Amino acid sequence: MEERRQFHKTVVADAKKSATLMCADNKKIVKVDFASYGNPFGACGNYMLGNCSAPNTMKIVEQYCLGKNRCAVPFDQVLFDKEGDLCPNVLKNLAIQVQCGHQINKFSNYMRV
């Protein structure tokens, strides 16, 4: 399967109930470029992990969003940090950057012998 990426979408959630992403023109989320629950910094196209980041954030965001036109990722400490507060006294944000595009299936021709 080949992915044709079109543009980036970015959302930052801070104390909201969820981070909602939506691709235009019936495109799908084909790749999660960046995802961090903690104290990420930077801006679209140049996000970086801060000194506090839940290690499972990328996997969680991929489960919620990949292959969908729209997704809402809950801004919930329990979802990202099941062990408790990974960084006490640090204000948490959820930063997500994805690529939207069309997925193109490539089919191979097989010959029976």
TrEMBL record:
<dbReference type="InterPro" id="IPR043159">
    <property type="entry name" value="Lectin_gal-bd_sf"/>
</dbReference>
<dbReference type="Pfam" id="PF02140">
    <property type="entry name" value="SUEL_Lectin"/>
</dbReference>
<dbReference type="GO" id="GO:0030246">
    <property type="term" value="F:carbohydrate binding"/>
</dbReference>
<dbReference type="InterPro" id="IPR000922">
    <property type="entry name" value="Lectin_gal-bd_dom"/>
</dbReference>
<feature type="domain" description="SUEL-type lectin">
    <location>
        <begin position="13"/>
        <end position="101"/>
    </location>
</feature>
<protein>
    <recommendedName>
        <fullName>SUEL-type lectin domain-containing protein</fullName>
    </recommendedName>
</protein>
